[in-house]
Fold this sequence. Notes:
This is FecR domain-containing protein. The chain has about 325 residues and is an alpha+beta fold. It is about 30% helix and about 35% strand.
Amino acid sequence: MDKTQIRHLFKRYINGRANGPEQNLVNYWYRSFDDEVLDINDAEKKQIKAEIWGDIQQRISFNKSYRQKRNWWLRAAAVLLPLLLGAGILYYLAYYRNSAVQTFTTYTTGTGERKMLRMKDGTVLNLNAGSTIRIADDLSKERIVDLIDGEVFFDVHKQKGTPFVIKNQAITTTVLGTAFNISAYRNIQTFSIAVVRGSVQVADDGHCLKQLQKNEELVFNRNSRSFIVKPTEDRVLDWQKGYLVLNDVPFDEMAILVEKNFGVIITTNHDKIKKSRYTTQLSTEMKPMEAAEVLAAIHHFKISGGSNHILFYE
């Protein structure tokens, strides 16, 4: 990467338009001071870092007030470029350029649809209804799956020296060879992972939460950032047998899962119904209205509406 590209990088960073990898690039240079071998103590090192970064921020702030001038960003780049080069960032730039070309292929399942995928490394994925994942096209250096929405059962093929990584928002699951189920619906506040074979490591924003073993399930609350670990429930894989299993779930979660599996939207105007918890097992072979009728009957509610939109009431 030449000086012109570096200037453009810092122009985007200073102007707040840098993407995630580009922000990490500049932040990496700042963190590189931790790796320098200097004949100073920790307190002095911390002070130097703070003073240098503070000075850079002041200069950037000053230059922002002159954005209308054509070459404002050149002055900011002139401040940062010598420091950047001195920190050995060009090596990292070369690494970033090579790693940034990683491409992904997206796979989805529709309402009530389930799909099995076999990755190039031999790993088998079973997708539940209404799920979306992205799989890295090049698995030679790192095996990455982005679980964007839904539920997936992973039977990971062991590949020595190349961990298998599943990313879902800030949650990262890392394994070598094992089998486990992840439920991570975008609009449901809980993330759960149940291990069937082997072990997995689960981390939140880079901080390890738990090393899960066989027959352990971790349930993570996205709002509170808290989690519990419990024995794996017997029916956690029943969705692969054609069942929607609701186990003491709130109304909103029930409505999302019913829509994913049956394509029908359930709503209500009653607070009591909204505050109720729902436990039942529904065959996904049912018609949407049949599933809604069973669900309402079990919880002593009435229904009205058509095949696409059903209202629960007392």
